[in-house]
Amino acid sequence: MSKRKRPDSTAPAHGLTEHEKTIHDLIKSKQDMGIFSQDIKRETKLLPNIVTKSLKSLLAKNMIKEVQNVQHKARKHYMASDFEPSAEITGGSWYHEGALDKTFIDLVRKTCLSYISSLKIATVEMIYDAIKRSKLFHVECSQEQIAEILRTLELDNQIVEFRSTGCGEFAAIPIRRVCYKIAKKPGPGKEPKVSPMASIPCGICPRISYCSPDGIINPITCEYYNKFLDF
């Protein structure tokens, strides 16, 4: 569901040129996803100078705003003023001032590992409830975000996913419910098994489940992945 702010009663409802109204209606139709300036030109088929002039006018009238898209920082992204950008645009709590907050992500990862270790076996719901009750973080993490973190830990071979049998050590967990245990450490003289994901940014990225070749989050535009390839 789109997060929509209360409309600003002071915002002018009239006095727009035909071009400004066309552009404003298009931007508003995109709701909390917004739209890139290039796409505005493509969809309205207006001349570039008219689009630029209209955008400046709409910004001055506080009818639209420019927002930062964490995956396309160099491109201008616009949204109607009565909407707040979605987590896909801002990156949600995993991002701070437009950059991936690795310190916060690392803290959440360590906290999840700590709870799994103490509980021996834990579901996403159990870990989420424990974190919510603890009030450890300055921002609230959703259950979906905790699931994303667990996915990165699994990719790094730090935890292992199981399906509960409802018996023995799984007695407290409903049958077939997904749960996690700390991965076993290698025996003496054996090298630890390192996941191929551990050496690339994807291994710690909590948004990896949203990453796809044609998605807003994708390997082609990801600045962290591109830096890794350049290195």
TrEMBL record:
The keyword Protein biosynthesis does not apply. Its main location: nucleus. InterPro entries: RNA_pol_Rpc34, RNA_pol_Rpc34-like, WH-like_DNA-bd_sf, WH_DNA-bd_sf. GO terms for cellular component: cytoplasm; nucleoplasm; RNA polymerase III complex. It is found in: Nucleus. It comes from the Eukaryota. GO terms for biological process: transcription by RNA polymerase III. Keywords: DNA-directed RNA polymerase, Nucleus, Transcription. Gene3D superfamilies: Winged helix-like DNA-binding domain superfamily/Winged helix DNA-binding domain. Residues 1-20 are annotated as: Disordered. The keyword Iron does not apply. PANTHER family: RNA POLYMERASE III DNA DIRECTED , 39KD SUBUNIT-RELATED (PTHR12780). Belongs to the eukaryotic RPC34/RPC39 RNA polymerase subunit family. This is DNA-directed RNA polymerase III subunit RPC6. It comes from Trapa incisa.
